[in-house]
Design a protein that fits this description.
Structural class: alpha/beta
Helix content: 40-55%
Strand order of the largest sheet: 1-2
Number of domains: 2
Shape: globular
Number of strands: 4
Largest sheet: 2 strands, parallel
Distance between the termini: 10 Å
Radius of gyration: 14 Å
Strand content: 5-15%
Number of helices: 5
Length: about 110
């Protein structure tokens, strides 16, 4: 998947949730260059669309969270994917396959 994104065959969609999750470890360890690298890749990466969270995404996240008992972070991630018209959602969380609005692809199943 990541090679396809690098080659321009797929577009990755990310959100502030992705950025925040990826920066935790580098911040804890004081890895300044890794912080910058993650920021650049997630916010400005080639073939990557960084989607801000707005009121529409927030409302959909609340609906998803109430109907599927998702964490707030997962609800925002799924809502962001739906708002941008993603064809699929790539995750490590097999429980997200319960979301029928989107093709959920679990990395361990590839």
């Amino acid at each position: 998947m990541f090679n396809r994104i690098d080659d321009g065959l797929l577009t990755a969609v990310t959100s502030p949730i992705t950025l925040a999750e990826c920066l935790v470890h580098p911040y804890r360890l004081g890895l300044t260059q890794l912080q910058k690298d993650f920021f650049e890749l997630i916010v400005n990466g080639a073939n990557t669309l960084f989607t801000p969270i707005d009121q529409t995404i927030s409302q959909k996240a609340a609906q998803l969270r109430s109907g599927h008992h998702l964490t707030l972070a997962d609800a925002f991630q799924i809502s962001s994917a739906l708002a941008t018209g993603c064809d699929a959602f790539l995750t490590n969380d097999i429980d997200l396959k319960a979301i029928s609005d989107l093709n959920v692809i679990v990395l361990s199943e590839l």
